[in-house]
Write a structure and sequence with these properties.
Layout (H helix, E strand, L loop, with lengths): L4 H16 L7 H6 L23 H16 L4 H14 L13 H13 L22 H9 L4 H12 L6 H19 L4 H16 L3 H7 L8 H5 L12 H13 L4 H9 L5 H16 L6 H4 L5 H9 L3
Helix pairs in contact: 1-3, 1-14, 1-16, 3-4, 3-6, 4-5, 6-7, 6-8, 7-8, 8-9, 12-13, 12-14, 13-14
Amino acid sequence: MKRNIWLDGMMGLIVGDALGDPVQFMSRETIARRAAGPVKGMETGGVYHMPEGTWTDDSSMALATLDSIRKKGEVDPEDIMRGFVCWYEEGGYTPFGEAFDMGTTCSLAIEKFEREGDPMTCGGTSERSNGNGSLMRIMPACLYAYERKLPAADAIKTVHVIGGLTHNHLRAKIACGLYYFCVKEILDGEGSPEERLQKGLDAGFSFYEEDIASRVELSYYGRLRDLAEFAAVPEEGIRSTGYVVDSLEAAVWSLIRTENFRDCLLTAVNLGDDADSVGAIAGGLAALYYGYDGIPGEWLAVIRRREWIEELCRMEN
């Protein structure tokens, strides 16, 4: 049977999001001290008091992007923004028909699009527009570029446009671009997660170093140049905040320090802080490596609206 990379990547993202939601905004020390201890599986509760298997804005915005690609057969920025409006205003692409956990930068971009109607200018461009709100939802754009075998320049242009709908600062767009190169090498490469990610990141750094402006922003991602060295960084040296550089680092670190999907995701969400987004970012990459069958069945079983999500992933475009 032909592998469905959309099912792998999207379900990995959504499972990671749902696994991390109950401990979102908790420090790793608080998580460790809980009566239940560190996260071991799907839980209820959290700041939004949701049942187990509930996914958040990360998955909603990724699903809106996926749905647009499936319907249009191409990446259409305006249509994707309309999907974000549907989520934001009407509760579309949510587990229970109501949007929650909206990031400020994403909210501002959606509201600007509603006022002005231009998807290319609604994303934030300030230094503060470098949260992880584009990286957490960029998987469908990466898979679209990969599946169509777009040349690197075209692939990165596509990823930058879709990431830039909400986060239009170059640093955030580079994070999405590096993620694309990781996705591509995980799917095409051989060897361990560390070996594949290293090749992907090497390709990404080489691509961006061709542009003078990008070289400055690349300096923020310097710890990802040598993953053998980065893997040795202790947990206390890993930040899991909503800053896009921290989130990408935490996701990569979780994947290269573990040997299966379960351990990768538990490592990621138990870092705490922006646990749902780090879980989503790590989960997408981990599921592309380990496959859908590598996701624990008991985690999949409680994912809200699972049948609808999986049907959307199986649709042809």
